[in-house]
Amino acid sequence: MWLRTICDMSFEVEIPTTFILMLRQRSGANQWVAREEYRIRPQVPVYEFTDNYGNLCQRLVAPVGPFEIFTSSDVLINDLVDQAPGAPFVEIDKLPESVLSYLLPSRYCESDRFNDMAASITEGHAMGYDQVKAIETWLRNNISYLPGTSDIAISAIEVNERQSGVCRDLSHLGIALCRSLSIPTRLVVGYLYELEPMDLHAWFEAYVGGRWYTFDATQSEITGGYIAIGYGRDAADVAIFNQFGPSVTLETQRVEVQLIEEEKL
Amino acid sequence: MWLRTICDMSFEVEIPTTFILMLRQRSGANQWVAREEYRIRPQVPVYEFTDNYGNLCQRLVAPVGPFEIFTSSDVLINDLVDQAPGAPFVEIDKLPESVLSYLLPSRYCESDRFNDMAASITEGHAMGYDQVKAIETWLRNNISYLPGTSDIAISAIEVNERQSGVCRDLSHLGIALCRSLSIPTRLVVGYLYELEPMDLHAWFEAYVGGRWYTFDATQSEITGGYIAIGYGRDAADVAIFNQFGPSVTLETQRVEVQLIEEEKL
Amino acid sequence: MWLRTICDMSFEVEIPTTFILMLRQRSGANQWVAREEYRIRPQVPVYEFTDNYGNLCQRLVAPVGPFEIFTSSDVLINDLVDQAPGAPFVEIDKLPESVLSYLLPSRYCESDRFNDMAASITEGHAMGYDQVKAIETWLRNNISYLPGTSDIAISAIEVNERQSGVCRDLSHLGIALCRSLSIPTRLVVGYLYELEPMDLHAWFEAYVGGRWYTFDATQSEITGGYIAIGYGRDAADVAIFNQFGPSVTLETQRVEVQLIEEEKL
Amino acid sequence: MWLRTICDMSFEVEIPTTFILMLRQRSGANQWVAREEYRIRPQVPVYEFTDNYGNLCQRLVAPVGPFEIFTSSDVLINDLVDQAPGAPFVEIDKLPESVLSYLLPSRYCESDRFNDMAASITEGHAMGYDQVKAIETWLRNNISYLPGTSDIAISAIEVNERQSGVCRDLSHLGIALCRSLSIPTRLVVGYLYELEPMDLHAWFEAYVGGRWYTFDATQSEITGGYIAIGYGRDAADVAIFNQFGPSVTLETQRVEVQLIEEEKL
């Protein structure tokens, strides 16, 4: 399926402020970016670099006044995300080096504190994909998904105490639980077609059976429509924008995801 | 200045053939890619990766039949490239690690064989930028630039024997000469506004005075209009496309570079 | 000064267990490793790789029974660590790309929660080195250094609540405070000559004035004798050993640091 | 088998000269470095870094006068190198990204010029390991191995013209032939136990059947005893030492490889 994404943000900047953005989508095994726009106004110099996780990031200094970022892309993805019940746990000594850092606890995923809880939730499930699926199901049934309720990121421990959260919060708890089982797990930030209400979204991927699989406890079932913008250990690594200064206000943010017909590309 | 680039290629493929492409431009210190299109027909899975030089590459298997690649971008660059007469040679022990590999001889730049010639050409010039400028001037005056005359890449030694070549050939000889003076030098493939006749272009960059500077012996003077697609030690590293198989024909290739007004972006 | 280090560990392993070790010291700007031993018994295959922070890591599967690791090195370091009162804060847009990830909050350094406290501690101090020094002094005066009291890592928030901790804990709080001021800060694990009681040690480095400087709130003053084993965002990234399994006991650990005369090398 | 290596070099330096050394062996899938010494006299600051191929390199400025480098290591390797007749060719679209650069022509391996010759030598052999073995056998039978005869590196084309060469030369021709068949191939520099006459050695590795295999046309048969120091596309990438200046003389070089009993480690 071909999707067209738009993410349009406007800021009010009171003093010149450095931004680090992560809004250039990359083509990968599961998505092909055939068109991309990335415009900023006013135009200032931008330095693009690749971070430790392979994301393309942009660094710039926004001047005083209104600052606008417009991004849009046409992306081809599969109609359905792959699922693999029974896909086995990969022993640590067999994991590719590139996934090892996704075993470690991180800012919002204190996996070193969830051993017992993860064991309890996944009891009786085969090691690997089925454990992750059990965790996703548990999250769906036990942590209320309340989009739009949280401004600042909270950690898995805090999510577990509140028993509710936004998409990012449910993912953080899911990641912490999976990592405590020694399953590499990462946060993905991106777009989801037909998300209600439409916004940027976050979900998680677990490495089982020799590859990454998609999980999302906020949806009643996983079908398709996921477009990744960035990957990381948690939301600390995958901020769509980080501004380093106290005097910036996000005034508006518009997110759209449309189905497009190939002929109209 | 804002430029719009187009590179459109069509191939005829007789047996399924793997391509490695380098046609996704990156934003960098000297260019901002505000819009980009990258379309292939028929649509096949594409895997994008970053090579040792930071270029984004695409790997795919083209099926039997016609295969088309269309890329286009809107890029902001400075009106004039920077020049820095007198910029000093950087001692090897002060060079950033990332530029060290550009000191070594490479496939088409046998810098280990040009010591005497480089010394002779640059005699009396200050070490650094002025040496490179002397080499560029020497190339312009001594090696005939004959666009469109060469199909296969030849090396600096061969270029020096023929005393003529395409843009890539002049650059290879320039690179070999600079490296023999221990100046890090790299090949750039990309677009040049108002190039006559219009085509993809190649030039070289030398690291002096703490940064990379642009040199191009094919033009009577360097002004501006350079858009980079890829960087590498020489043309072996920076092929716009590498096809691994004997049965592919490049049927057509169209390259355009247009000046665009910002309002029309 | 030349120092000889020894770190000798013995484990009892009940089921075959994967270890990821970080015990191969690297030579760097501040230390030269002239001799190194790294022995394991029983001998099993070891795969060495470089992590995201440049550390050399070793992955192996320890068999059932006793498992011993012996490392030793002869390292040349400066007699005194550099100090630089007045070294300025580096604006975010001027930081090298490689240090940007040290601005982010991490598992044990919740820098997103320390803005007010860091502002209060550093009030009246010049931005940069002097702020970090004020934080180090504050830690020394307000957080009791109690070596040997903690088994599991606790986070900066928890350290701040307890008002005491081991070397790692004081460093984590120091890092969280510095990062909340947008100063890149990292944890270092290694050896300290004449540490009392002798053990592996942890301290932190802050990037100000264009380079990394050493800070250590556990010592009444910083002189010299620091040898780094590994760097990372916090203790989650810099574990001397990570074992992935429940059935491993660290039976003994011996750490020594001796001054050696160059003639006896 | 446990081997002890020694490489001892002394230079006479007339003006301060930057060296880039590649003399720190790394542990890898096929070798475990249990002890290592790396001493330089006089002691100067050394900066160690990792190059594009994963080698540890050391950069330093040697002062005027005698300059000595002593390295030694104890390394565990398998008694026999693996061989795999019939191991298949890996299609380009299935190769890991990390091996793709070993498909390209390089300074001393002009693989773009050997298509017909490689096809002729390997005619009738199964694609993959058997092709490489046919090339190794052809080299052994057709290119005279004359250790100690060459000072400066010559390229595969030149080796083919001379019909003789040192270990590095035979490897370069082997690499060029393999790459022209789209088999990733790399040069290895290191030690070989019982090499006659003893010296540093060079051989090549080809990626077939999903991993790297060792080939060496200078020996009548490949058994074991290979210890790698560095990997690269060819000798331009894998110089044990590169000195950047005209006024350095290598006065003596001593290489030893001894079998050691494990008890004496």
Characterization of this structure:
4 copies of one chain form a homotetramer. With 265 residues, chain A is of the alpha+beta class. Chain A has 2 domains: 2-77 and 240-264, Immunoglobulin-like (Sandwich); 92-232, C8orf32 fold (Roll), CATH 3.10.620. Chain A is 15% helix and 39% strand. Chain A has helices at residues 115-121, 129-142, 156-162, 167-179; strands at 2-13, 17-24, 31-41, 47-50, 56-62, 65-77, 144-145, 164-165, 185-192, 201-208, 211-215, 226-232, 241-244, 248-260. In chain A, the strands form 4 sheets. In chain A, strands 3-6-1-14 form a 4-stranded antiparallel beta sheet, with no helix packed on it. In chain A, a hairpin with a 5-residue loop joins strand 4 (47-50) and strand 5. Chain A is globular and about 55 Å long. The mean pLDDT of chain A is 95. Chains in contact: A-B, A-C, B-D, C-D. At the A-C interface, strand 5 of A face strand 5 of C. Strand 3 of chain C pairs antiparallel with strand 3 (31-41) of chain D, so a sheet runs across the interface. Chains A, B, C, D: One of its GO terms (biological process) is proteolysis. Chains A, B, C, D: This is Transglutaminase-like putative cysteine protease.
Fraction of helical residues of chain A: 10-25%
General form of chain A: globular
Low-confidence stretches of chain A: none
Q: What portion of the residues of chain A fall into strands of 2 or more residues? A: 35-45%
How much is the radius of gyration of chain A in Å? 19 Å
CATH class of the largest domain in chain A: Alpha Beta
In DSSP terms, counting alpha (H) and pi (I) runs of 4 or more, how many helices of chain A? 4
Largest sheet of chain A: 4 strands, antiparallel
Tell me the quaternary state.
homotetramer
Number of discrete domains of chain A: 2
- Hey, which two chains have the biggest interface? A-C, 29 and 29 residues
